[in-house]
Amino acid sequence: MTRRLVVVGDTLLDRDVDGTARRVSPDAPALVLDEESTVDRPGGAGLAAVLAAADGLEVTLVTALADDAGGLRLAALLAEAGVRLHAVNLPGATPEKVRLRARGQVLLRLDRGGREPAPPQDPEHLDALFAGADAILVSDYGRGLTGRPGLRAALGATGTPIVWDPHPRGAAPVAGVRLATPNEAEARLLSDDAGGGGRIAATTRAGQELRRRWRAGAVVVTTGAAGAVLCHAGPTPLVVPTAQVAEGDTCGAGDRFAAAAAAALADGALPSEAVAAAVAAATAYVARSAQPAHSAGPGGGRGTGPAGGSAAAHEVVARVRAAGGTIVATGGCFDLLHAGHVATLEAARALGDCLIVCLNSDTGVRALKGPDRPVNPEADRKRLLSALASVDAVVVFDEPTPEATLSWLRPDIWVKGGDYADGGPALPEAELVRQWGGQTVIVPYLDGRSTTKLISTARSSSSGGTA
Predict the structure, then answer these.
(1) Which of 7, 187, 278, 368 could bridge 206 with an S-S bond, Cβ 3.0-4.6 Å?
(2) Contact 214, 175 (CB under 8 A)
(3) Count of CB atoms within 10 A of residue 408's CB?
(4) Is residue 328 within 8 Å of 413, Cβ to Cβ?
(5) Active site annotation includes 362
(6) How far, CA to CA in Å, does 302 sit from each of 243, 415, 419?
(7) Cα–Cα dist 219/240, whole Å
(8) Rounded to an integer, what distance in angstroms lies between the CA atom of residue 172 and that of residue 212?
């Protein structure tokens, strides 16, 4: 069944003029661009709608279009992309952004359509439109549509999941949106947070303040090449790093992120799952415009490879700290190493300049899991972890929790992977890590992967007997 998405917001006409710049004007100290091609495309909410339609969703765009050449061009482009229009008249001229480019580099951007937004009238018949949607994406570009009282009343009354991509000059999200998606600069500006502290801590602080102000279910702050930080009702943020860093054109990446998140919610995903899908989609969107500069996957190209034991961990920590780097640590039993473990470790390693794994000893695993565990002894578990490119050192501890080990490691970021992603109790080590200014975060995990399930499956298979 085709998912139905309603996109609400301001639409602009984006125009890319590409050419060659080989000379300087004789009458002014300025480059001369010899135009070779021009490409028009919908911008703002129009771009989000086109991207969602390209993903196979049935998309209706609620927007305002001017009765001019630019408005007619936008209507034609949206129709070609398969987007249905639910438009009101926009007073004044169609806003346009014209980028003059040479060899893919922007030389100058020319904006048209007036500096001040012209508030359009209220769209009509929205209740039925919203009720028939699987999700709603509000893409605000600060030109007045999202401030219309009738539109806001209809959004506030619907039970359909809403993703709200805000703008500093736009209206605040209506109460109860499922997910708001400001970028890092917008989050600081809108929350009146001047920053301070580590990047994740500052981002989390701003995101949580906006979540309270807006009465939103969750706020995800996008952080460019670093990924995104999801702030929800739980005390610990979910950090979703990118799988790769691309030096491509980031124009439209925010729209790609918001559209992918809305599509995931339309499919029934949790906010954490929607954010993970959106980070992947936005990263791929940027990467398509350029070759990836480098991988930020296992090891991220940083560190000097795996080691083992507290002495090796001391050495790694001292070296990274002396260089001003970020120390990341995580912990667990890691019995029967599986794909879920690897995903957690790779995501954790991408957050800093080294990853130290705090490994439960055999005694500790038996206390936690019972007398039949671990399946693999600590020496084997330690060796397997040390062989991973994402792991810089492994420290084995006997205590029920790794607090004693953390007290001397003093990591900048303590990472857990698990089902705290959409709220829940505070992680037990969070208060300790906070004492030295560290940050506790959660990273995505692969659903359905666990050592307990692997053991149960193996035992069920063996009990069936063999021929």
Answers:
(1) 187
(2) yes
(3) 11
(4) yes
(5) no
(6) 15, 18, 29
(7) 13
(8) 12
CB-CB contact of 441 with 237 (8 Å):
yes
Would you state the structure tokens that stand for residue 398, as one six-digit string? Answer: 């006997």
Q: What is the pLDDT of residues 210-242, one digit of tens each?
A: 999 999 999 999 999 899 999 999 889 999 998
Q: Is the pLDDT of residue 299 over 70?
A: no
The tokens describing 230, both together, are 């999801």
Q: What is the pLDDT of residues 321-347, one digit of tens each?
A: 989 999 999 999 898 888 888 989 999
Structure confidence at residue 351 (pLDDT): 95
CB 293 within 8 A of CB 245: yes
CB 306 within 8 A of CB 391: yes
Question: What is the per-residue burial (b if ≥16 Cβ within 10 Å, else e) of 75-104?
Answer: bebbeebebbbbbbebeebbbbbbbbbbee
3-state class (DSSP) for residue 355: strand
Question: Cα–chain-centroid distance for residue 37?
Answer: 33
pTM above 0.90, yes or no: no
DSSP E strand stretches across 321-453: 327-332, 354-360, 393-397, 413-417, 439-443
Residue range 156-193, pLDDT digits in tens: 999 999 999 999 999 999 999 999 999 999 999 999 98
Nearest CA among 333, 404, 337 for reference residue 365: 333
> How many whole angstroms from its chain centre is CA 437?
24
CA dist 98 → 13, 14, 285 (Å): 8, 6, 21
Q: Do β-strands 58-65 and 84-89 pair in parallel, antiparallel, or remain unpaired?
A: parallel
Q: With contact defined as beta carbons under 8 Å apart, do 58 and 4 qualify? A: yes
Given a cut of 60, whether residue 307 has pLDDT beyond it is no
Q: Is the pLDDT of residue 447 over 60?
A: no
| CA gap 241, 193 in Å, rounded | 23
Peptide bond into 306 cis (omega under 30): no
How far apart are alpha carbons 123 and 126 in whole angstroms?
Answer: 7
User: Which stretch of DSSP H or E encloses residue 89?
Assistant: strand 84-89
Nearest to 140 by CA among 163, 107, 122: 163
Contact 297/350 with Cβ under 8 angstroms?
yes
d(CA 173, CA 150): 14
**What residues contact residue 408 under an 8 Å CB cut-off, 6+ apart?**
none
Where on the phi/psi map is residue 109: left (φ > 0), alpha (ψ -120 to 50), or beta? Answer: beta
- Please tell me which residue in 14, 165, 255, 392 is annotated as part of the active site: 255
Q: Which residues, including other chains, have CB under 8 Å from residue 462's CB and lie 6 or more apart? A: none
Please give the helix or strand (H or E) that residue 112 lies within, else none: strand 105-112
